[in-house]
Task: inverse folding
């Protein structure tokens, strides 16, 4: 009796034990929302638990060894997705820190709410970002594969985005404008791929990522800091103080040019840049010894993005008055020279910047067990090396006046480097999918994925504010005639409520005067809830079928235009 003809063996029990162990082990570990879900409808429906049963042409991402299971000849695939974000964030009054600033200051953001007003993406070729509605339809991938009859080699290529994220939080009353009101970070890949079927059960695959990356941030700056408040108090107290020529030579009134209000914006920042070539690769192995069992393993390489672009730092009149005051007397000129403080005010500074963004390497392993002909159970675990991201550093091409002043409040990273500590943690995700086959032409799917956050609480801000996520998904696949398949899916991404109390984050609400960069919500408690709704559609077919359908559409369009031609 051949091994493949054995009845359901007891060895399946051990496979189940191994699979359940893989599923439960990462539950105590940390992971992150790093791989977007809209790349492929079947994968979304199964919670991305497809490493041991990769999805057609998009195997080039999920496990390139799976390309060996593509049908012969040319095959094509296109995917579309609908994304809808419903987010609510609260900035809450905390009576224990109501008076941490000197003087009579009441934070106007206390007990206000902010939300996402739209989605921001960068459009290559257009050369800029665009803001879309919070609910939007997007193309998510396109690909083509080829395998000659009786060949062990399969070739494929496609265009997709493994990471695309961006949001708009615009509006004069939206408290997020002091954190980040526009932000995007995305990576698009053109991916030549190949797989080789070494034996009847073992396949290997590799895909090369020719990547394009983009990143942008826009924010109004706010500094609710006791040192900033002190300049405002002294500026107000010395408005009428004039003892010529003593004050003219030393400290002309009002001090600090009138000072900076801690709850008003002294500056705004708008940056955007791209990396036109950020290469990567994926390596995959797929072992399918039985019809009822398979194992998959895929390695995604680290992607380093060297972003270069333009920036604009704009300054308020109050900030310009303070800079002018720093050079308004011989005494202040000497002090400013010693401390390397600016003395010539400008309305804005523009130039170029560079920054390095890293998408970490990942390893994903999966198992598929088919205990019955009508049921497949898939389980995956995913490890991502987020610990390589220790900081965000933006390097400007000149000394930035705001950073030069920040040195007086303990900022130590220099006057042309904007640095935020991250110290992200390595992460694990886990997922499970069920695929049910009522008929040979219909597949019903369910999925669940747990994604934990990689962001330490002390470094949470309005960009890196990922909570833990629960992803619930469902979908179906329908095989039509002539080799065409249509997959549909829906997913609900539900976040755990994120609560950050005062001083729990060094980048959000720390009240220490030695932490000026960056705590725009100092003294306020922060609460956040996110719900993301996703809908996916993937259409796959032989290229000949698509050509025939396209030809028929062109013929119909020509007939319509011929009828309308007299008009």
Result:
């Amino acid at each position: 009796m051949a091994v493949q003809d054995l009845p359901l063996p007891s060895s399946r029990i051990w496979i189940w034990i191994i699979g359940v162990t893989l599923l439960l082990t990462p539950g105590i570990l940390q992971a992150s929302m790093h791989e977007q879900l809209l790349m492929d409808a079947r994968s979304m429906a199964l919670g991305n638990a497809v490493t041991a049963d990769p999805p057609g042409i998009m195997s080039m991402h999920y496990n390139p060894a799976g390309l060996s299971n593509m049908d012969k000849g040319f095959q094509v695939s296109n995917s579309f997705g609908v994304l809808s974000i419903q987010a609510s964030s609260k900035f809450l009054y905390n009576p224990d820190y109501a008076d941490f600033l000197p003087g009579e200051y009441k934070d106007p953001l206390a007990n206000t709410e902010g939300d996402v007003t739209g989605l921001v993406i960068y459009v290559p070729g257009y050369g800029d970002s665009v803001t879309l509605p919070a609910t939007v339809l997007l193309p998510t991938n396109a690909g083509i594969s080829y395998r000659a009859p009786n060949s062990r080699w399969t070739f494929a290529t496609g265009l997709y985005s493994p990471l695309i994220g961006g949001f708009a939080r615009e509006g004069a009353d939206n408290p997020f404008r002091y954190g980040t009101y526009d932000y995007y970070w995305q990576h698009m890949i053109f991916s030549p791929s190949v797989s080789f079927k070494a034996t009847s059960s073992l396949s290997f695959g590799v895909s090369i990522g020719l990547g394009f990356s983009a990143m942008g941030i826009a924010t109004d700056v706010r500094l609710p800091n006791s040192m900033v408040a002190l300049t405002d108090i002294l500026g107000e107290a010395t408005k009428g103080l004039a003892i010529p020529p003593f004050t003219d030579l030393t400290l002309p009134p009002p001090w600090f040019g009138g000072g900076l209000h801690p709850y008003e914006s002294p500056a705004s920042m708008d940056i955007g840049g791209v990396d036109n070539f950020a290469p990567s690769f994926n390596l995959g192995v797929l072992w399918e010894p039985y019809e009822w069992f398979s194992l998959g393993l895929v390695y995604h390489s680290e992607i380093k993005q060297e972003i270069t672009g333009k920036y604009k730092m704009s300054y308020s009149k109050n900030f310009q008055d303070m800079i002018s005051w720093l050079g308004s007397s011989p005494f202040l000129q000497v002090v400013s020279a010693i401390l390397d403080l600016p003395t010539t005010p400008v309305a804005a500074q523009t130039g170029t910047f560079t920054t390095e963004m890293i998408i970490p390497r990942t390893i994903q392993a999966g198992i598929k067990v088919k205990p019955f002909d009508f049921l497949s159970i898939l389980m995956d675990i995913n490890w991502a090396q987020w610990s390589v991201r220790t900081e965000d550093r933006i390097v400007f091409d000149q000394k930035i006046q705001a950073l030069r002043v920040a040195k007086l409040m303990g900022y130590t990273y220099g006057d042309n480097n904007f640095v935020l500590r991250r110290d992200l943690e390595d992460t694990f995700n886990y997922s499970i999918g069920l695929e049910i086959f009522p008929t040979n032409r219909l597949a019903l799917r369910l999925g669940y994925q747990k994604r934990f956050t990689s962001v330490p609480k002390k470094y949470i801000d309005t960009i890196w504010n990922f909570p833990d996520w629960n992803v619930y998904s469902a979908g179906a696949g329908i095989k039509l005639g002539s080799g065409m398949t249509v997959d549909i899916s829906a997913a609900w991404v539900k976040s755990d409520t994120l609560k950050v109390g005062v001083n729990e984050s060094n980048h959000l609400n720390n009240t220490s005067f030695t932490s000026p960069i960056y705590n725009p919500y100092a003294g306020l408690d922060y609460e956040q809830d996110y719900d993301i709704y996703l809908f996916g559609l993937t259409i796959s077919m032989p290229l000949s079928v698509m050509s025939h359908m396209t030809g028929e559409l062109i013929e119909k369009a020509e007939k319509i235009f011929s009828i309308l031609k007299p008009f």
Summary: The chain is about 15% helix and 45% strand. The chain has one domain: 3-221+271-302+360-389+424-564. Confidence is low (pLDDT under 50) at residues 1-34. The longest strand covers residues 73-93.
